[in-house]
Design goal:
This protein is α+β, with helices and mostly antiparallel strands. The chain has one domain (13-391): Cytochrome P450 (Cytochrome p450, Orthogonal Bundle). It has helices spanning 13-18, 20-30, 50-58, 81-89, 95-116, 124-141, 148-164, 167-190, 199-205, 219-250, 252-260, 265-275, 307-310, 345-362, and strands spanning 33-36, 44-47, 63-64, 122-123, 207-210, 213-216, 281-286, 290-292, 295-297, 302-306, 366-368, 375-376, 384-386, 388-391. The chain has a five-stranded mixed sheet with strand order 1-2-10-7-3. A three-stranded antiparallel sheet has the order 4-14-11. The radius of gyration is 21 Å and the shape is globular. Bound molecules: protoporphyrin IX containing FE. Protoporphyrin IX containing FE binds at residues 57, 74-75, 86, 228-229, 232-233, 236-237, 240, 278-279, 282, 307, 334-336, 340, 342-344, 347-348.
């Protein structure tokens, strides 16, 4: 049972490592608003149920996004600063930008899909999903190809340091990222005229309204925007690819259905990722005492919202563990909701649909490689850290 003050039986680490979905389901059923005594699992409150997660993310006055002393643009900001930066970022993901980027995304997806054609025993996380996410990220921002591998390693190291709660390592990794961006910005500024207009140049020359005046964005904020963008993109896209490919490998009838009915790919992706989300949590801080699911959260306390658990709430999605056509995906919190809703969702959808279409175009039926069990990723990541597939003719 759920102890009303704190939960001594908060998430069991061993279960979380081996069965993350079931562990979150169990917490949502036993203790939808729980208190974590555990430093490695976001000490403080956790919301697991759909209604309470929705309550938290819909009330930005009571639940602030400024959860750390480290500035993070835009995710770690509140209104009015947050709104200024959203205004700057959102146009990069509008219909025209996404349409213009589609051929480049298709080219990357096709190239990667061809590398696995007829191949057996392919670890699709390292060889396809992670490659795809960094290559698209660099192409979208206009960054050089020689950043692919450093960014991929950076995302891994960042995840390992976060998992270990290793603050000095996290600081070193943040510095490393700043180093990449500083080098890039210096080169850009020296050659602004030579580079075609791309997203990075637009951000470099953009202004934001600060104290009534349009002012250039500081270098520190440009680095922060790029870091938020990179963290938003790389881990989630790679995890989402792994989750989809795994689900289709173990559900051959659905895989065949999508081969024969390509128009159903977008809905299938939303539903596969509703059922098993690639992003697990985000955080908020209470600005006043507030009641959440019968618990009192005190001003200043932290709350972790669990997207994966909320999207598997049977009260909102009947038989939530089942893949079903025709669900109301407006209820899905895959990309969040409220003022911090994912601005990159149109790009994410383009990426995932394009990559899955390319795999279906260029390979026959794909299956799990025999005797190679997929390895679940460890929280805070989701999906699989390794997944071996056989691609048939
Ligand atoms: C399947 C892929 C993705 C998923 C599941 C996802 C999910 C989310 C969610 C749930 C949030 C809300 C966070 C909160 O409320 O605190 C969010 C925010 C954000 N995402 Fe995504 N995202 C994905 C892909 C992307 C991509 C491709 C980009 C950029 C290229 C991106 C950039 C961001 C940024 C910058 C924020 C912060 C927005 C703000 O605080 O106003 N995401 N994402």
């Amino acid at each position: 049972m759920c102890d009303k003050k704190t939960t001594d039986d908060f998430i069991d680490h061993n279960n979380l490592l081996t069965h993350p979905l079931e562990t979150f389901d169990d917490m949502r059923q036993r203790c939808p608003i729980a208190h974590s005594p555990d430093n490695n699992l976001n000490k403080g409150w956790w919301a697991f149920s759909h209604a309470e997660v929705k309550q938290v993310i819909s009330d930005e006055k009571t639940f602030s996004n400024i959860v750390s002393t480290h500035r993070s643009v835009p995710n770690g900001l509140d209104h009015p600063e947050h709104s200024r930066y959203r205004k700057l970022i959102e146009p990069f993901f509008n219909k025209a930008h996404i349409k213009a980027f589609t051929p480049q995304c298709q080219r990357i997806a096709k190239r990667l899909a061809l590398t696995v054609k007829n191949q057996k025993n392919v670890n699709v996380i390292a060889n396809m999903a992670e490659q795809f996410s960094v290559q698209v990220q660099c192409e979208f921002l206009g960054w050089p190809d020689d950043l692919h591998e450093p960014l991929r390693r950076w995302a891994h190291d960042n995840h390992a340091a976060t998992l270990a709660g290793n603050r000095p390592a996290m600081d070193e990794i943040a510095q490393r990222f700043s180093g990449y961006i500083d080098t890039l910005l210096t080169a850009r500024r020296a050659n602004l005229a030579q580079v075609e207009d791309d997203v990075t140049n637009e951000i470099l020359s953009a202004t934001v309204n600060i104290e009534g005046r349009q002012q250039p964005i500081s270098d520190a904020d440009i680095v922060s925007i790029m870091r938020n963008w990179t963290m938003g993109e790389i881990g989630t896209i790679a995890a989402a690819m792994g989750i989809m490919l795994h689900f289709l490998a173990i559900n051959p009838a659905l895989q065949q259905h999508l081969r024969d009915n390509r128009q159903d790919v977008p809905e299938a992706i939303e539903e596969m990722l509703r059922r098993h989300g690639p992003l697990v949590t985000n955080r908020r801080k209470a600005t006043r005492d507030v009641t959440l699911g019968g618990r009192t959260i005190k001003a200043g306390e932290l709350i972790t919202v669990n997207w994966v658990a909320a999207n598997r709430d049977d009260g909102v999605f009947a038989d939530a563990n089942e893949f079903k056509w025709g669900r109301d995906q407006h209820q899905s919190l895959l990309y969040g909701a409220g003022v911090h809703v994912c601005p990159g969702a149109p790009l994410a959808r383009l990426e995932l649909q394009t990559m899955l279409q390319a795999v279906l175009d260029h390979s026959g039926r794909f299956t799990l490689t025999k005797h190679k069990k997929p390895i679940s990723a460890h929280y805070p990541a989701s999906g699989y850290s390794a997944l071996w597939l056989d691609f048939n003719d």
